[in-house]
Each structure stands twice: as C-alpha cells, then as structure tokens.
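User: I'll paste a sequence; please echo it back and then give the predicted structure.

Assistant: Echoing your sequence first, then the prediction.
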Amino acid sequence: MEANLSAQILPALYGCCDRPENWRPLLDQICASLGVRSAAVQIYRQDGGHLIQRWQERDSYSHANAAQHDRWINNPDNPRLAIVPRDRLEAQLAVRTDEQRFDSTSPQLQETRHRLAQIGLRGGSGVLFEFEPSRWFSLILHRQISDTADGDGKDAAFLSDIAPHLLALSRLSATVQAAYSAQATLASIVDRLRPGVIFCTGSGEVRWHNRAAAAMLANGAPLTLGHGQLRGVSAESRQRLARLLSPARDDDMVTAAFGDLDDSMVQAIALPNGAFKADVAEGWDDDRDGVALILIDPSQAPMLSVGHVTSLFGLTPAEAQLAVALSQGVSLNAYADRRGISVGTVRIQMKRILEKTDSRRQADLVGKLYGSVIAQLHGSMH
C-alpha cells in the first residue's frame, strides 16, 4: 500500500513546487490512505540550536483544529524545535519517531507525549533535514492516541520511500519561490519607473507592462495597448512597431519615434530578449524572439519630490522647493510672489542652488534634475 501510495503521489508532490496551496489536498490523501489522523509539512529557519517556523501547511482536519494544535504542539515551546545531535547524523533522510530522536528518559520526550495527548494524538513518524544552510524541512505524521503501534511501520516505510523526493522537492521549491520573489520585487520596482516598460513577443502579444506604459499609451497615443496586444494606430506606426518587434539578428537595440511633438509622441527603444538570454537552454524559453520595449514621452515632465531633491543634491528644504518649481517652468518672479518673499531672496537661494549642484545656469540645473534618478521614478516620489 505505502509503496503504491509513494508512486501515486509523486506527480502531485512535485506539483507543490510552484503551487504550495496543493499541499493540503496532498496531505489529505496521505492521511486517508495511511489512516493517520494528522499530517503537517513545515519549513524552518535555524537560529542557533533552535528551529523557527517560517511556513507550514496541514491536512484539513489539523487545519480545522488549528487553535488547539497551535496551543499545545505547534508553537515555539515545542521540544521538537531544539536541534539534537541525531538531527546531524549522516543518514539525514532517516525516518525517526520521537522515541528515536530523544533519549527514552529525557524530559523532552515526556513533554512531547503530554502535549500530543492533549489533542488526541500520539508520537508519530517524521523526516527532518537541512535542505539549505540553516533551512530545514519537516514532514510528520501523527496517529490517534487510541491507535496501536501496528501502523507505525507502514508510516515509516512510506516516509522512507518519499524522503529522497522530499529533499529534491525542498531544494527545487526554494529555487522556484526565490525566483518568484525576485520577479515580484523586480516588477514592483519597474512599476515605479517613469519610462514605460513592456515585455512582449515578436507578434506584439504583451506578457507584462508597468503602470507608466499603460498611462503613456492611453487616450490618443500613437500606440495602443489593449486585450493583451500592442498595436499601432496608423499604417506608419504599425510599420515602425513591426520593425521594433522584429530586430535583425545582430541588433542589440532598435529605436523608433511614434507621433510628433505637436501631438502625442512616444519614443521607443527595443531590446531583443535573445541578446540577454544566451545562458537559457534552447527550447526551454518561448520568448527568445520577444523584446523589451522602453517607452518615453518627451513632453512629460518628470515628477520630483522636494524631500528627495534635498537629500540627493544636499540642498536645504527651501532651496529644493525652488529647484523643483524651476523644473516645472515657474519663473523667479512668479515663485517670489507665490511664496510671499522678495525676488532678491529668491536670487540668493538660486545662487546657492547653482553652487551646490555645480550648475552654471538655470538650464544646467533643470537638466540635472531631469536626468536624476528621482526623476525616473513614480509611486511615493510625489
């Protein structure tokens, strides 16, 4: 039974790598097939000689009784969370019971038995191993307190069968989840950039875009973004877009302008995916013929924050406020009227700003502000 179960669950087991929510139905299947009452999978971070739980999933019964389980056994006081010498044995994937993990007369064993009894369980079989430095994986099965020990051998045989797969799964899951986390972080950062960014296929099918791209291509823009497709609104723009999406094999960058300065203009740079993915195995990546498009609206003034201008250029808050106003086209006289100060005071502030930013004239200052890192960001910057 357990050997058959081991083979049966392998596809579902590896399916948990990128879909952790699949663990609960899998644990339910294990409980039903083996006749165990509770099953839990957990990830721990090691801190000194103790394990700190970072993630877990339980079968449906244990989830429904989570309050009681957390009160008695699934908490930082759990004696099992202390690393003992047996955990570092060479046979790291060995299946062990509490009796095998602790000395038979140890207070940890007695305490664990007492805690489990409060929720109607008795010591079960489990695997605990370090799959990355200071990161541990555990899968443990518990039977009802009324069960005899006859089923323990079956549970241990099942865990022994799948233990090598659990090790492979934990390492693969860590890689996949780290990639997802990095992707989410990168997407969040790119979503705050002033330039529009679009990842699309050679046919214009959009895989991802940031907020700036959506705003730039809305309401009368020479390019449109809708229903997952990037399109030109005129024959000329469609022709230029086709050139961007199908660069020559030796091109590492292609540029094009859409519209005109009197209307709505978008400047675009296409970066072919193939130029940056040489290390991806051929056949595993469907987007090698795709491109990353960087879009700029030259008529759109950057959004500047007084606070960030202050810290970036070493200005006082009053000087930074004037610098931001100048970048928005406000004259010195108009700024003096707005602030209720003399033009002489504003000129003194202006002189100090030019000195601190190493600018010779106002146009140099505005150019440095527009070219600064804060000018390229949205979000909390304004």
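The chain has a mean pLDDT of 88. The two ends are 63 Å apart (CA to CA).
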